[in-house]
Amino acid sequence: MPPSARELLSRLAPDFPVRHAGEIFTDTTQFMRIGYGDVIRLADRNFLVLRDEAERRFGLEDPKYWVKRCRCLETGGRNLLKLVFHESFPMTIGSMVVTCTRSPRKESRILDLVRGDDRFMQGETVPDTEDNPVRILDVVAGKRLDEKIEALEMPHRDYFHDLFPDILDRFIEACEAIGWLHERNEKHGDIRRDHLYVRYDTGRYCWIDFDYTFDFQESPFGLDLFGLGNIIQFLVGMGQHTLQSVPPDQRADLSSADCSIMFPNRIVNLKKLFPYIPEALNNVLMRFSLEANVFYDATTDLVRDLHQAREALGG
User: SUPFAM superfamilies of this UniProt entry (predicted)?
Assistant: First the structure.
């Protein structure tokens, strides 16, 4: 008879309080049943579930019940296990509608493609007994880029002249990483500022979470590009600026044409707030505005314009 979770934990995790020992799961289909103290067995490895993962967005915790933070009982290493969860929803960008779909097998394909490339999170896929593709992810040793920016306590002018040039250099490299995916006819699928980490050891930026794909008939990689646009707006502004957050005297000089096509209350014409922003950089931001007539179709075009903007910064 195979050992129970209690017996397994007593032997391989003697520091774990056995009173919290749960069940051993080899089928992860019903992921809501799997929680703290349970063990997920995949091939010859056992993973102790410590908690459900959660994303913190807009000041709120958003639990992800299909993502388990675990300890591998054989190695002692920490991993995230992403279990199979399907969903689909529409996203509106101006007058365009994009269908987004969660695809575990697409993420597995990306993990295979980027193996050994530290511009992307690393992991592998191991099927459970019901052939669900469970992704075993290495925890990125780093901090979210947006949290590092939001933690800064300095005037925007000092940030823009002293820190932003290096940040832009690294962000251009991160855009080139996305371009590398696109050249291989793959998409990131869920580019957001909380999906870009700064590695502790090298300072290099690292993309996480590849399990969304999208159907954007107007532009095959368009949603990835709009995501990159949202991040560069955040980085240039040293945070998010909205019509509601700016002082009344600045608000009077702004219109809907100065705002984002994806988030109509977010200001992208940041030169109106910070006049020292070079025109070349502000022109990139305005390609993501409500008044834009032409959008980026290829990451190479965005990278080219970002390089030109970087030259305008000097240094």
Answer: Protein kinase-like (PK-like) (SSF56112)
